């Protein structure tokens, strides 16, 4: 039951974010936005939910992790979500899952963007590490996090 609750929390928040991203994407495209060549979004849209799924599966097979790992993971997850939503709020309609560039619009330099170039990606890595901890996924967690981190690095380069 514990891992089902974790799955519900992870995927429900992902759905809320997806709905907002889709709405913002339509607004960005309507304003003349375009996506760059070479984006890895098609892979990311499968890898992101898949990363959490493999951690949940490993957690189911291994059983509950120790309470301190659960507590640390839960705290990290809350912190990562707070950072992500600060970034989302700071970007407003500019926040999407896809990279969409509107010609002539400058970069946002407010909120967490004052301190970090890519706070949303920092938050995503935090979410992955957090879920690895709360599910007790010492194999799938690091592999999924490193794989998704490589996708993020590729995306930043785009």
CA-based gyration radius: 16 Å
**Overall average residue pLDDT:** 96
Low-confidence stretches: none
**DSSP strand tally:** 0
What distance separates the N and C termini? 41 Å
Number of helices: 5
Your description of this structure?
The protein is an all-alpha fold and 158 residues long. Helix content is 70%, strand content 0%. It has five helices and no strands. The protein has helices at 2-30, 41-62, 67-91, 119-135, 140-157. Helix 2 runs parallel beside helix 4. The radius of gyration is 16 Å and the shape is elongated. The protein starts with a helix and ends with a helix. 27% of the residues are buried. The model has no long low-confidence stretch (mean pLDDT 96).
List the helices and strands and how they pair.
Blueprint: H1 2-30, H2 41-62, H3 67-91, H4 119-135, H5 140-157
Helix pairs in contact: 1-2, 2-4, 2-5, 3-4, 4-5
């Amino acid at each position: 039951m514990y891992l089902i609750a974790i799955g519900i929390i992870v995927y429900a928040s992902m759905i809320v974010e997806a709905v907002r991203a889709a709405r913002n994407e339509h607004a960005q495209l309507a304003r003349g936005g375009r996506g760059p060549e070479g984006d890895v979004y098609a892979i990311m849209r499968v890898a992101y939910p898949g990363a959490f799924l493999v951690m949940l599966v490993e957690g189911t097979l291994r059983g509950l992790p120790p309470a301190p790992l659960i507590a640390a993971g839960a705290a990290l997850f809350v912190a990562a979500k707070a950072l992500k939503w600060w970034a989302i709020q700071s970007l407003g309609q500019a926040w999407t899952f896809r990279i969409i560039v509107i010609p002539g619009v400058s970069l946002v330099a407010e909120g967490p963007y004052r301190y970090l170039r890519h706070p949303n990606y920092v938050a995503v890595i935090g979410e992955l590490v957090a879920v690895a901890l709360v599910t007790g996924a010492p194999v799938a967690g690091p592999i999924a996090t490193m794989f998704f981190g490589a996708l993020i690095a590729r995306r930043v380069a785009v």
